[in-house]
Amino acid sequence: MSTTNKVAVAAVAAAIGATALVGCGSSDDASSGSSGTKGTGSKTVTLVSHDSFNASKGVLKEFTRETGYTVKVLKSGDAGAALNQEILTKGSPRGDVFFGVDNTLLSRALDNGLFTPYAAKGLGQVASDVQLDAEKHRVTPVDTGDICVNYDKKYFADKKLAPPKTFEDLAKPAYRNLLVTENAATSSPGLGFLLGSIATYGEDGYQDYWKKLKSNGVKVVDGWEQAYNEEFSGSAGGKKAKADRPLVVSYASSPPVEVLYADPKPKTAPTGVATGTCFRQIEFAGLLDGAKNEEGGKALLDFMIGKKFQEDMPLNMFVSPVTKSAKVPELFTEFGATSDKPATVAPDAIAKNREQWVQSWSSLVVK
Fold first, then answer.
1. How far is C-alpha 202 from the geometric centre of its chain's CA atoms?
2. For a tag site, which of 119, 238, 253, 263 has the least CB within 10 Å?
3. pLDDT tens across 139-198, in order?
């Protein structure tokens, strides 16, 4: 999910603190992708991430027992903010591995030369369509998540109104003043939703589409937390806040969160997903250039695409694994949604046009 703000892909779960110490990694020489490795002999490897990184203690403790490495997790705000900090400290990074850059911001990281190439062990088990840097291995794909409009089931049932299914539906008068989305300039889900509209309507049509959405009363807020937990009437937080927007840009994995953390747990999720509005987000990790503990960093990347960590992600970060052999928990599949044809935009097109697209969107919708 990243951001990536993911999380943002994992942004559907509450952030779990600013800094944590956990164990994982490998003491083996994981040098399949580079030569001339650096290392200080340290058993601590620092993972820089957005705030939504999470992993179960049991999985991390098991990796500590197996390898001896301890991981210090340095959380640095949302994915965009975390990436900006690494760009500012390029060459003298705050950690060894960065996790959380997604396909919407990947070009910024690569163009700034943030990562040392490394082909992580286990890449053969990772789906080829998510390996966007397969030739150079500067980043390793870790998870995917679909950014989609979520809807409040009760609202639409009470109004006897069918929920929207597609981008086009959202601009119809029946859904006037119902949608809240995040700012594409400040939020990963907001940017993903913008890119989804560009994939759907093209560079020549997306601006007219957003003019229609604006005329139809779309509300724009800074980030996911505000949109989902304060403005969206279908979320637990939104209910407490007496929110009045039954449509929100969030994730296909948001409904399982509403079930998992509810007490008592409902038999069905209170929220649904408009699967015709989804944009596929791919989240990556990379070995930071200038890392003090390259060997630990490589081991950490190996671990992150390992089966145990991959199977741990769905109910901790609410994202989907990229490793083919990883199984997804039943709760995640039962209450989440799957888009058969999520919108995508080629990474080179995003790299070339992202800033222009965001500026045009801002002038139309925000200013």
1. 23
2. 263
3. 999 999 999 999 999 999 999 999 999 999 999 999 999 999 999 988 889 999 999 999
**Angle of helix 347-365 versus helix 206-215 axis, rounded to 10:** 40
Reduced to 3 DSSP states, what percent helix, strand and coil does the chain have, rounded to the nearest 5?
A: 35, 20, 45
Q: How far apart are the first and last CA of the chain?
A: 28
Alpha helical stretches, state H, the chain = 57-67, 79-88, 106-111, 153-159, 167-170, 188-201, 206-215, 224-226, 236-240, 254-260, 294-304, 307-312, 330-335, 347-365
DSSP string covering 111-159:
HTT-EE----TTGGGB-GGG-TTTTT-SSEEEEEEEEEEEEEHHHHHHH
Integer Cα distance of 96 and 98 in angstroms: 7
CA separation for the pair 131, 308 (Å, rounded): 20
Dump the DSSP string for 230-264: IIBTTSHHHHHTT--B-EEEEETTHHHHHHHT-SS
